[in-house]
Amino acid sequence: MSAVCSGFLYGLAVADGLIGTGAAGRILLIGADTFSTILNPGDRSTGAVFGDGAGAVVLRGGDPAEAGAVRHVELGSDGGLADLITVRAGGSRLRRQDASAAEAWFAMQGQAVYRHAVRRMTASARDVLDRTGWTPDDVDLFIAHQANLRILDTVAAELGIGPDRVYANVQDVGNTAAASIPLALAHAVTDKALDEGHRVLLAAFGGGATWGAATLVWPRLTSDHFEQG
Known about the structure:
Blueprint: H1 7-20, E1 26-33, H2 44-47, E2 53-60, E3 70-77, E4 85-87, H3 101-104, E5 106-108, H4 110-132, E6 141-144, H5 149-159, H6 170-173, H7 180-190, E7 199-206, E8 210-217
Parallel strand pairs: 6-7
Antiparallel strand pairs: 1-2, 3-8, 4-5, 7-8
């Protein structure tokens, strides 16, 4: 699936639906991106922000009330915002070998992306909290797509979630797009910020434009259940 920074949540929704309908019993969901292949090495505004990464989770069928259950997923998109985040070349419309230097690289309208990311992630998170029957005070940990600290802090403040319940690792790994949320989940476990029974709120915004949010209760894990790198 290609939903860039929202890709993990889109995959989570599909996996949850496949398990819920009985089409699959267990699903390996992977979020991965290699932005180093599309970044202009001369553009310091993007080259210092993005990173390559991959993360994965295993989902299985179970009782909706048990720890580890995905409670609800909320998704949204608006093709009218496609020009906010682009790589013009590389598809059937414009082959990379026929593109200019500017068309061959990743481009982003930073201020507009910030405004829409805050607006859409906040609204989506509120919707999914309402569907779950949670309030912001019920959230033990908020893990959003690790775009930058300013977006994370602003969305959390709009939702009324204190900084002590917001997890960030963007300062260590950069913006890893679809890998962002699964990497943050793994790092939060390692940092002992995430434990069994914690009520978790996820949110993301990405190119397309796409966005989404999800609620889940974190399961009990042993050291054999996760690996990071």
